[in-house]
Amino acid sequence: MLRTSSEILRPIREKVEAGERLSFDDGLTLYSDAAPLPEVGELANLVRERKNGDAGYYNINTHLNPTNVCVYRCTFCAFRADLRSAKGYLMDEEQVRARGQEAVDNGCTELHIVGGLHHQAKYEWYRGVISTLHESFPELHLKAWTPVEIDWFSRQTQKPIRWVLEDMIDAGVGSLPGGGAEIFHPEVRNKICEHKADSTRWFETHRNAHQLGLRSNCTMLYGHIEQAYHRIDHLIRLRDLQDETGGFQTFIPLAFHPDNTGLSHIKKPNALMDLRTMAVSRLMLDNIAHMKAYWIMLGIGTAQCALAYGADDIDGTVRHELIYHDAGAETPEILSVEQIRQLIEEAGREPVERDTLYHRVEREGNAWRTGEAIAAAK
Ligand code: V47
Ligand code: SF4
């Protein structure tokens, strides 16, 4: 029985209980101060348990950022480096292969691969990162490249997005990560990342990927210059594409980290905002099966709480994370499997190891195989 009692939330509660879709205005109400956070969380938890029961999903993965040199200058980014700067790097084939070997040696099922748009690295170099890894370690799932990179490859090769995606699938890409979404609304996007792929290109990439049979994730970067209506607009755009293709697996709200960025005067969002954004996202995105509380970015305590505010997944063990640590994240760079399972159990959920495509993983040490697909929740 729901305890939600605020008058302002009554119509929303009725819709959630009946499994009906929430409107743009409902989204704004959920973000308003008049909507008590515990009640918003309780509604989100109802949806979370309806879709995913008590499961707390995690995976065993490694990050690879093959270069941090980038032609763009997104104001929120602390990761990028200038060409020929002391911070800038570009990995060679041996370094890329070593990262794959390390992943296999540690029982990983997935490599998460994103990076900068290097001024001088050719398309063949980016393709080579994927083909080297896929040929050497075919068992590793390569979740690689955001629409920002795919758009860059399309400019480099003068070929359509669909061609780039097909060529990357041929090289070994298994799915797309959720990055590069930021905030779609041009009032914000034009101020924080005006030159990179716009929302039309972002959606074109995911639409094409889904049509080609790839699954993908999606994200939203919040807690900087955007307002609630930009966030709700963002969520509804994602919901619309999902109605069309059904290809998104997971949504990941990403809390802005200000250190070393062009927006360092802005304060990092607090845990209340983090939990509200998770809950509102769970309630608005009624057609996306999973919500990820990325522990690296939220911090472990908030990620644990988020498992009762709509989230059913806390991402992976992670290794070699740079994007958030460059921007001031104080979380560890890696968690062991025991630690990650313990933090899920402490939050009262059942730890379930999954692969990138949400199949259960059966594991003995570093040896693993995938079991049945985790029923895609309605
Ligand atoms: O696109 C960059 C964001 C994203 C900052 O698909 C920042 O499973 C906060 O998309 N503060 C990349 N956010 C990370 C990402 C991701 C992470 C984990 C899992 C998955 C997945 C995807 O990080 C970027 C941008 O939106 N970002 N800088 C910053 N200072
Ligand atoms: Fe480059 Fe990506 Fe950073 Fe933007 S967010 S500056 S595209 S690395």
UniProtKB/TrEMBL annotation:
Could you cite one Gene Ontology molecular function of this protein?
A: 4 iron, 4 sulfur cluster binding
Annotated S-adenosyl-L-methionine binding lies at 76, 182
Q: What is this protein's name?
A: Aminodeoxyfutalosine synthase
Entry EC number(s)? 2.5.1.120
Q: Which organism is it from?
A: Lacipirellula limnantheis
**Family indicated by similarity:** Belongs to the radical SAM superfamily. MqnE family.
GO annotation (BP), single: menaquinone biosynthetic process
Keyword Iron: yes or no?
A: yes
* Positions that bind [4Fe-4S] cluster: 70, 74, 77
Gene3D superfamilies documented for this protein: Aldolase class I (3.20.20.70)
**CDD domains, A to Z:** Radical_SAM
Provide the reaction this enzyme catalyses: 3-[(1-carboxyvinyl)-oxy]benzoate + S-adenosyl-L-methionine + H2O = 6-amino-6-deoxyfutalosine + hydrogencarbonate + L-methionine + H(+)
Question: Which positions fall inside the Radical SAM core domain?
Answer: 56-289
